[in-house]
């Protein structure tokens, strides 16, 4: 009889863990950094990555990877973003490594792609797009609104280095109206995008 009760207690404990809150889908670890937009500083404590594609499907570019820096949790559900309700700032980066580093994150400087430069070298690493979002409003884990800037209208670059599981990321963008800069040091949690 004691074995039956022990089994029942263990079963109920396991069941309660599996039925815990929706936050269980988030497994982000903490880093440190900041986003500075026009002189206003915002903390960046979480980093997330969709790594380079490493398969053989020609529909996916193995040079491309994507990462997000923010102050709360992010996950994917059926490849759709699920945002922590505490997010108030977020910067995302759509990146391409150089043609010689396909399938990996390259430790280098990534300039913003200059649409006006006819001599832009597509074989080098570059930022295709970055969205800079402050005053973010999240409701029920879905993005509602934010104050946004786009790297499409800015000049600048980001530098990435990785040592074991720790990334060091710095970035600086500007135009006549806006300046954006910042940094992040820490892990990037894999979002497990389903290719």
Short overview:
This protein has 195 residues and is mainly β.
Jot down its keywords.
single chain, mainly beta, 1 helix, 9% helix
What does this structure look like?
The protein is mainly beta and 195 residues long. It is 9% helix and 48% strand. The chain has 1 helix and 14 strands. It has one helix spanning 2-18; strands at 32-37, 40-43, 46-50, 64-70, 74-77, 80-83, 89-96, 108-111, 126-139, 142-150, 155-163, 166-174, 179-186, 189-190. The protein has a 6-stranded antiparallel sheet, with no helix packed on it. Strands 10-9-7-4-3-14 form a 6-stranded mixed sheet, with no helix packed on it. It is globular. It starts with a helix and ends in a 5-residue tail after the last strand. 28% of the residues are buried. Mean pLDDT is 88; it is low at 1-25.
């Amino acid at each position: 009889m004691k074995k039956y009760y022990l089994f029942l207690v263990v079963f109920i404990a396991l069941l309660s863990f599996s039925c815990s809150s929706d936050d269980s889908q988030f497994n982000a670890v903490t880093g440190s950094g900041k986003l500075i937009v026009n002189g206003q500083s915002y903390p960046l404590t979480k980093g997330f990555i969709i790594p380079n594609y490493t398969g053989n499907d020609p529909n996916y570019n193995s040079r491309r990877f994507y990462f997000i820096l923010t102050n709360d949790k992010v996950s994917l559900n059926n490849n759709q973003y699920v945002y922590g309700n505490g997010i108030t700032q977020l910067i995302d980066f759509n990146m391409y490594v150089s043609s010689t580093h396909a399938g990996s994150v390259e430790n280098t400087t990534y300039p913003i792609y200059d649409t006006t430069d006819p001599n832009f070298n597509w074989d080098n690493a570059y930022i295709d797009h970055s969205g800079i979002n402050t005053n973010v409003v999240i409701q029920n884990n879905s993005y509602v609104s934010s104050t946004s800037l786009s790297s499409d209208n800015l000049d600048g670059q980001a530098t990435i280095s990785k040592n074991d599981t720790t990334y060091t990321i710095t970035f600086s963008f500007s135009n006549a109206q806006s300046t954006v800069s910042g940094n992040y040091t820490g892990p990037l949690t894999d979002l497990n995008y389903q290719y």
